[in-house]
Amino acid sequence: MSTYNGSRFVAEQIRSIMGQTYSAFRLLIRDDGSSDKTVEIVRDLAVAEPRISLIEDNGTNLGAPGSFMRLVESTTSPYFMFADQDDVWLPQKIELSYAKIREMSSEFGDDKPLLVFTDLKVVDQHLAEISPSLWSLQKLDPHLCRDWKRLLAQNVVTGCTIIANRAAARASLPFALQEMMHDHWLAVNAAKAGQLDFLTDPTVLYRQHSANVEGGKTFGGSYALSRLPAIPKKLNHFRRAAAHFGDTTAAELMKYKLSANAARLRRT
Measured between alpha carbons, how far is 27 from 2 in angstroms, rounded to an integer? Predict the structure, then answer.
């Protein structure tokens, strides 16, 4: 978990993690330079719960992607998950995700990068349901994860639902394209070198509030039109991504992006 000025919700999120039906884990929390009471809250919870470890990192602020990737560097666990500071995990999240990735490990082996992600329930700041499915709300097709190029063009993997193995961590380090979100970076690297799969059951209450770094916005025609001015910036990103990952071009990635958005519009 990466935290940053999350004192409103972080205790509730940590309690939901500690209350999972699967309990053989540790929670590694890196604070990204909070100026509120987040660190104090986490310290107090860690005193009562030995599975929690806090990394303060001298108050260094890396931003969410850099902070999460620093955590990936900091753990040697065979499997790891990402946790946002403001969500609520449903009780069987770890149990279900771990069972799925162990099933994949039996099929493909632990030397291959493996990653599992899930759908989410979208809720407001009081946990009242906005949508039973983020994928439905945003018209996302999780099957895009089968093709790393299409996944690079259109991310469908939400970080707070991920479980991945050590090989996926190795494949995604060092963090070379820091303009990408950590979940997208990890997912594309794992998909290119290994295998991705997903669970259709939501495992997280994805809380929407005014301070979200990322959010669950409704996808539709108005939203698509609002993104048109960002096309030049997106094309520049695709050029850099194509140069890094190889075996693709910015034009091909833009084609996949436009195709994915057209398919999303047809589902509205």
Answer: 11
CA dihedral 243, 244, 247, 253 (to 10 degrees): -70
**DSSP secondary-structure letter at 200?**
E
Number of C-beta neighbours around residue 143 at 10 A: 10
**Planar angle of CA 53, 56, 57, nearest 5 degrees:** 120
Please name which of 65, 74, 116 lies closest in space to residue 95, comparing C-alpha atoms.
116
31-77 residue pLDDT tens: 999 999 999 999 999 999 999 999 988 989 999 999 999 999 999 99
What's this model's pTM, rounded to 2 decimal places?
0.93
Contacts of residue 102, defined as CB under 8 A and 6 or more positions apart, other chains included, come to none
Strands 114-123 and 195-207, sheet pairing:
parallel
Report the distance separating Cα 173 and Cα 167, nearest Å.
Answer: 10
User: How far is residue 31 from each of residues 4, 68, 105, measured CA to CA in Å?
Assistant: 6, 10, 32
Tell me the two tokens of residue 217.
């916005």
Q: Show Cβ contacts of residue 225 under 8 Å, excluding neighbours closer than 6 positions.
A: none
